[in-house]
Specification:
InterPro entries: DUF6729. It comes from Xenoophorus captivus. This is DUF6729 domain-containing protein. Pfam families: DUF6729. By secondary structure, this protein is of the alpha+beta class. It has one domain. Helices cover 39% and strands 16% of the residues. The protein is built from ten helices and ten strands. The strands form two sheets. Strands 3, 4, 5, 6, 7, 8, 9 and 10 form an eight-stranded mixed β-sheet that branches. β9 and β10 form a beta hairpin. α8 packs across α9. The longest helix has 28 residues. It is flat. It starts with a helix and ends in a 6-residue tail after the last helix. About 2% of the residues have low confidence.
Length: 259
C-alpha cells in the first residue's frame, strides 16, 4: 500500500500503523486511500501494562505524522504553478518522499500528495511554494514547517531564530534543541527499559528485548541558519511591506522639500 520510498524511510512499526490508518479496502479488496483524512496522525502509544516483553521498542519511540493534502482534504481548485500555464491541478497519488521535520524536543514525519496539471501534465508536490501560495490564509497558516533539501524544520524552531540578538545565536539554539531532544529520548528509553526489566529474569538470552534505537542527531547551527534564510525568502514580500510602511511614516513626519 505504501510507496517503496516510504518503506525505506519508515520502521516496520511505522509502516504498519500508517498503512492501517491511511488506507482501507475497496469493493474488490484493493488498498485505497481513505476519504476521511486529517492533518495530524498520532501513532499507537505503549500499553499501560505489559504481560510479556514488548515485541520492539517502536511504540515507545514512534513519532506523529503530518499529512498535507490541500486538494484532497479541502477540495480546493488549484492552478498549475508553472509559468505560462493556467491548467487546473488534479490529484495524482502520494508524493514519493516522506520528510523528517525537526521539532523542539523531537522529530515528526510529513507526507503530501502529488498534483498533476491537466494541461501540461507536470507534477508537483502539495507542499511546494507554488501550491501553498495559492491557498487562502485560513489553510496556508496550518502548514507547520520550512522545507529544505533533505530535512525540514518546524515553525516553532524557526521562530526562535527570528529574534536573534547578542547571546541568542544559532549555536545557542542548537545546544538548547540538543538538550531537549536528549531529555525526551532519555524519558522514552527509561520507560522502554523499565518495561523490559520486568521480564528480564524470566526470559532466556535469545529472547531478550532489543536495545533502544540511537537518538537522531540534531542538525548543526549552520543548517539552522540555512533554514532561517529559507524562511526570510518566503516572507520577503512581508519585509518589503514593513520597510515601505516605516519609510512612509518618516516621510509624513518631515514635510520639507529636501526629503
Amino acid at each position: 500500500m505504501l510507496p517503496e520510498s516510504w518503506r525505506a524511510a519508515l520502521s516496520p512499526d511505522q509502516q504498519e500503523w500508517i498503512g492501517r490508518t491511511l488506507f482501507g479496502r475497496d469493493r474488490t479488496g484493493r488498498p485505497r486511500l481513505n476519504d476521511d483524512l486529517n492533518l495530524w496522525w498520532y501513532p499507537p502509544q505503549p500499553r499501560p501494562v505489559y504481560n510479556q516483553p514488548p515485541a520492539s521498542p517502536g511504540p515507545f519511540f514512534a513519532c506523529r505524522l503530518f499529512l498535507w493534502m490541500p486538494h484532497r482534504i479541502w477540495r480546493l481548485q488549484l492552478t498549475c504553478p508553472q509559468p505560462l500555464c493556467t491548467g487546473s491541478m488534479t490529484k495524482a497519488g502520494l508524493y514519493r518522499t516522506i520528510r523528517r521535520v525537526l521539532d523542539i524536543d523531537g522529530w515528526y514525519l510529513m507526507a503530501t500528495e502529488y498534483l498533476e496539471c491537466r494541461r501540461c501534465k507536470k507534477k508537483v508536490g502539495g507542499w511546494s511554494q507554488g501550491i501553498i501560495g495559492q491557498l487562502p490564509p485560513t489553510y496556508s497558516c496550518l502548514f507547520p514547517a520550512v522545507l529544505t533539501y533533505k530535512l525540514s524544520c518546524d515553525q516553532k524552531v524557526v521562530a526562535q531564530l527570528r529574534s536573534r540578538s547578542l547571546g541568542n545565536s544559532a549555536t545557542r539554539l542548537y545546544n538548547t534543541l540538543r538538550e531537549h531532544h536528549t531529555e525526551s529520548w532519555m524519558r522514552r528509553s527509561i520507560h522502554y527499559l523499565g518495561v523490559c526489566e520486568q521480564f528480564l529474569s524470566s526470559c532466556s538470552v535469545s529472547k531478550r528485548s532489543a536495545p533502544p534505537p540511537p537518538m537522531p542527531p540534531v542538525p548543526s547551527p549552520v543548517w539552522l541558519l540555512t533554514v532561517y534564510g529559507y524562511d526570510v525568502v518566503t516572507r520577503l514580500e512581508e519585509y518589503k511591506a514593513r520597510i515601505t510602511s516605516i519609510f512612509g511614516s518618516i516621510l509624513k513626519m518631515d514635510s520639507t522639500k529636501k526629503v
